[in-house]
Design a protein that fits this description.
Layout: E1 29-33, E2 38-43, E3 46-52, E4 55-56, E5 65-74, E6 95-99, E7 109-112, E8 123-125, E9 129-130, H1 133-142, E10 148-152, H2 158-164, E11 171-174, E12 177-180, E13 183-186, E14 191-194, E15 197-201, H3 202-208, E16 212-216, E17 221-226, E18 229-233, E19 239-242, E20 245-248, E21 253-255, E22 258-262, H4 263-270, E23 273-277, E24 282-286
Length: 287
């Protein structure tokens, strides 16, 4: 079995994606949390997707900090063992997003594919960040050169890590307070305030409202029963249905792995009345 080693030299430029390295929207970025071995991709300042990854077999091997992605390479050879790019035996997979770490210019550390899917989620690499091949294909197609990858080891949510690194200055994470019919409830999950919009944890809020929520893995949709209404919604979209009728709402988001729906949208879908109290930082709903 091939021993995976990321410390390889960049050879030639024939395989490099020549995508323009023009100015990149700063609200697009990546966070890798070694604590959970998860990678988050933020698009336009919102958490878009989360993937499982593999990182260094020793905590010191995968560097921590903010690093730019400075090259994109398809079918990079594995020079140490003279394995051609695109070969199924290649431990780098067939996509490489090189990170500028201490002057290495994207030749030493990278986010890339793998030749052993069972390694994903584990601490096994020599420093690079491994992804499933189909997932790195998707990420590779989204990434522009010079966007930042923040690598850390933290118990915080991805959003809080982003805030702490100055990436989401227009967003605040608040202690979850939900007032229902005058009764105060302290939520396990926080509330998110962004651009004057309040997002609340959907599952926990629906339960407190006496409703029911189910997740369909096949269709990746949520079905809720709230206030006598059957509501469906696919996270990260602005689409929902109420008793079979299509409804346009504010696009939902994720806080960590929790689906967050705007308070306005929850009231719209459920037919309930409520508001945001900025003095007490509490969402108020009359059931």
């Amino acid at each position: 079995m091939l021993v995976f080693i990321c410390l390889v030299l960049l050879w030639g430029t024939a395989f490099v994606d020549k995508a323009a390295a023009a100015e990149v929207v700063s609200s697009d970025f990546i966070i890798v949390n070694k604590k959970t071995n998860k990678l988050a991709y933020f698009r336009n300042g919102k958490l878009d997707k989360v993937f499982s990854v593999a990182t260094g077999k020793d905590p010191s091997l995968t560097p921590e900090g903010s690093f730019k992605i400075v090259n994109k390479i398809k079918n990079r050879p594995y020079y140490k063992e003279k394995i051609a790019g695109g070969d199924p035996r290649n431990p780098l997979g067939d996509r490489w997003l090189g990170l500028e770490v201490n002057g290495t210019k994207g030749t030493t550390y990278a986010i890339h594919g793998n030749n052993n899917v069972n390694s994903i989620g584990k601490y096994v690499s020599a420093g690079c960040i491994r992804m499933k091949n189909d997932e790195i294909h998707w990420l590779f197609s989204q990434i522009k050169l010079n966007i930042v990858a923040i690598i850390t080891s933290s118990n915080l949510s991805f959003e809080q890590i982003a805030i702490n690194n100055g990436k989401l200055s227009n967003m605040k994470v608040l202690t979850g307070k939900l007032m229902i019919d005058g009764k105060k409830n302290t939520l396990k999950e926080p509330l998110v305030l962004e651009d004057s919009r309040v997002y609340i944890p959907l599952r926990e809020s629906v339960k407190l409202l006496g409703g029911n929520l189910q997740w369909n893995n096949k269709t990746e949709t949520i079905t809720m029963l709230v206030n006598g209404r059957t509501i469906t919604h696919k996270p990260l979209t602005n689409k929902a249905t109420v008793d079979g009728t299509n409804v346009k709402i504010i696009e939902s988001r994720y806080q960590g792995e929790t689906v967050m729906l705007s308070l306005k949208s929850l009231l719209q879908l459920s037919g309930l009345q409520g508001k945001w109290d900025s003095k007490s930082n509490a969402a108020i709903i009359n059931n």
